[in-house]
Amino acid sequence: MATTTITPTTLTERINRIEVSATMAVVAEAEKLRAGGADMADFGAGEPHFATPQHIKDAAIQAIQQNFTKYTAVGGIAPLKDAIRERHAKDFGSDYKREEVIASTGGKHALFNAIQVLVDHGDEVIVPVPYWVSFKDIIQYGGGVPVYVETDESRGFTLTAAMIEKAITSRTKAIILNTPNNPSGAVMDPRDVEAIVRLAHSRGIYVIADECYVYLDYTGNRFSAGSIKEAKEHLVIIGSLSKTYAMTGWRSGYALSPAPITSAMQKLQSQSTSNPTSIVQKAAIAALTSDQSCIETMKEDYVRLRDRIVTGLREIPGVQCQKPTGAFYAYPNVSAFFGKGGLKSASDVAGRLLREAHVVTVPGEAFGTQEHIRLSYATSMQEIDKGLERMKKWFGGL
Ligand SMILES: Cc1ncc(COP(=O)(O)O)c(C=O)c1O
After folding, report:
1. Has this prediction a pTM greater than 0.85?
2. Which stretches does DSSP call E strand in 70-134?
3. Closest among 369, 328, 129 to 246, alpha carbons compared
């Protein structure tokens, strides 16, 4: 067998600073079991179970037929930038100009761009816990230092300006807010968002508001930090079409931010991916400018699925589950089982649920907490019932 001289030291120090996304690792392990014939109850992947709505698919097909298949402006074509800012203005009362909008290849790409242009070596970025896996790694890739702030689980993972203020130092460059939250499903009180945005603005700190789930808010109080116009100078809003319109594979996202930040992101994008796919841009325009009722239809389904999974999880003695008010994740605390049947951690729970009960979940360690597992309930009611049945049996047998 050929030997290789490629070792971790061959690779750059910056790539060795980051890890493969933990959620993707779970998907890979579940895939292996499935390939071996196992019937899995899958709560692992964080993506809608719906198909992309037909009118969005039609727009993409039409774009191909009309040969809209060439390079475009790096940050997206003007009609897409207008569709993004006008949709946002209509839904949230924001006021962004075309030069304050960049279209990227997914929300993650927009976030990556934003952090790479704002965060320098040694800069601190405040990250509330639990956090979406990629925040930590994208910050570290840029040379920044994540500074974690615990939220209050007993009050639905709340986060206040006072909690953030304690973590601010002279090196704080940015604060990440993610509401509705992945993995907890918690939605911040708009008053807390506003207090944090104003605090940051007064200290010259940037708020990077990851609002990829903003349309999946079940509180009836949908809110974007982008509506706080006075603080615009220190705000970067990250948006995505992935979850809103069931378009995860299309890769369509955006950022709204002051023009100099937007043009820096555009410069970075020009030296990496260039424009988001031309065809996807046309599909995104259709998604953003046509009738929005598909969002409500999907949302109603998510609420039914949430109610079923939360009720079922709470019926399992020992499992504690806060009621999520947004996104499509439940984040139960399973620490009551530590010490039973050899279980020591959330990773043990998720690993054995996967191998012994064929239920796919993601361990909380990936999101910075030690006592939880994440279940994505963007799936069918049958899948939820099947998974709950298996979990009841498995936890009950410990
Ligand atoms: C909190 C959060 N932000 C951003 C993203 C990225 O979404 P996308 O790159 O598909 O737009 C995700 C995807 O899971 C997410 O959970």
Report:
1. yes
2. 101-104, 124-129
3. 328
Rounded to an integer, what distance in angstroms lies between the CA atom of residue 353 and that of residue 166? Answer: 38
Q: Which atom of ligand 1 is nearest to the CA of 210?
A: 3
Kindly state the tokens that stand for 275.
């424009």
Query: In the block, which residue shows the tokens 């990556």?
Result: 112
Query: How is 205-268 classified by DSSP, letter by letter?
Result: -EEEEE-TTTT-B-SS----GGG-GGGGGGEEEEEESTTTTT-TTT--EEEE--HHHHHHHHHH
**CA–CA distance, 41 with 149 (Å, rounded to integer):** 33
- Residue 57's identity, in one-letter code, is K
Name the helix (H) or strand (E) containing 304: helix 293-314
346-357 helix and 22-35 helix, angle to the nearest 10 degrees = 20
Ligand 1 atom having least distance to the Cα of 253: 11
211, 242, 250, best to mutate for ligand 1 pocket (most atoms within 8 Å of CB): 242
Q: 108, 238, 247: which to mutate for ligand 1, most atoms within 8 A of CB?
A: 108
Pocket of ligand 1 (CB under 6 A): 46, 106-108, 132, 178, 182, 210, 212, 240, 242, 248, 253
Find out whether 371 and 295 touch, Cβ atoms under 8 Å: no
Q: pLDDT tens, 136-145? A: 999 999 999 9
What is the token pair recorded at 373?
Answer: 């597992």
Residue pair 290/143 in contact (Cβ under 8 Å)? The answer is no
Tens digits of residue pLDDT in 291-326: 999 999 999 999 999 999 999 999 999 999 999 999
Spatial CA neighbour of 350 closest among 36, 35, 27, 18: 27
Distance CA 149, CA 166 (A): 9
User: Phi first, then psi: what are they for 182, rounded to 5°?
Assistant: -110, 115
